[in-house]
Amino acid sequence: MAASVFCGGKVLRTFSRSFQGKNAKNVFSRYASTSQKKKAAKDSAPTRTARNIVLVEGVRTPFLMSGTSYADLLPHDVQRGALEGLVSRTGINKDAVDHIVIGTVIQEVKTSNIAREAALSAGFSDKIPCHTVTMACISSNQAITSAIGLVASGQCDTVIAGGVEFMSDVPIRLSRPLRKTLLSMNKAKTLGARLGLLSKIRPGYLSPELPAVAEFSTGETMGHSGDRLAAAFGVSRKEQDEYALRSHTLAHKATSAGNLEDLIPYKVPGRTQTVTADNGIRVSSPEQMAKLKPAFVKPHGTVTAANASFLTDGGSACLIMSEDKALAMGFKPKAYLREFVYTSQDPKDQLLLGPTYATPKVLERAGLTLEDIDVFEFHEAFAGQILANLKAMDSDWFAQNYMGRSSKVGVPPMEKFNTWGGSLSIGHPFGATGVRLVTTAANRLLKEGGKYGLVAACAAGGLGHGMVVERYPS
Which GO terms describe its biological process (predicted)? Predict the structure, then answer.
């Protein structure tokens, strides 16, 4: 019954039929015990440019649930904190930065080029060019790869890439009829003309247009899409709750162990308060999670507030340089930034499957296999989205029918997968998460002694991103 309720499209019905029966085992339990035999790691991943490009350092402000300690700020205030934290952490001279690029999704209209406003407020020279990019939930991934392009082309040696999202105060528009009336009043030359325009305003004009986390092309919220995807791949509510509990538990452990070292304290402007920790990590119990009602598809949905990422405020920033420049300035890089890819699928039926498509492509470009990867950092939009991707990656049928591949991608071992928590627990400021993923992958490689990390993420519009990072040698 669940499949018939959720699977509105032909493609999803096909998914659902294929993933029933023997394929509908507890996907979390299966992958939690997966341990693939590791092949000998390659000496080094190839680079396609004449320059090795490195991640020197990455930082982020604490990621906070929207409406909490950052609520009275503007987005560029939060991004400024990330930029200042990066400068403090690295000690880099601000004048040594050649370019700054920042990702964001829901733009504050007063600071449309938020990269520029945040940089100026953080004390960077007005001679440093800055630009802003947007690519839904992979916006700061795009900021990083834009920085890579600037360095690889020889245009720059030193670039700061980052991202910010501020869900506590999103722009709310007046209705279009009211906007048109008010704009016409600006052109009216007489009082009578203005009064005439005012007389045309109707009560319905006063209803505001509220922003929605929804696909423009389909009108469907991402949560609804997550519900449909989980149903299509036979991912149960219990499996989703188990995975979400895993994320929160691992994030709590990583926080207690001091592993989330990308986090920097943030002094809230205008207050005596200094925020020092993420505030969305909640280690609950299966019983408590099971009590929550569906958040999107009611009454039969499986996505709830407990197994979905929450609306989050936060900013991130990282320092990207050519290797020779970094060494000349006395820096010890964390990782090489190797290959990356972007993918795009149908935004209705395959909205959240970006990791499935990006993983094999980026591995092939890097000349690596899944077994060569020591650290996996995948964006967690919803627990159901992660588990559906794992099932798709583990399916020969899906690979052959939808990816044009002869065999399945393969499944990341869970002992290497998001072991310090993820977006479900740490938080997901849309524009900032990409930097967190890449920095966490690099930090895990250093902590665990691994060589290669793989970052993957989905995004609105059916977009996806994959990147290989390589630990910088001791």
Answer: fatty acid beta-oxidation
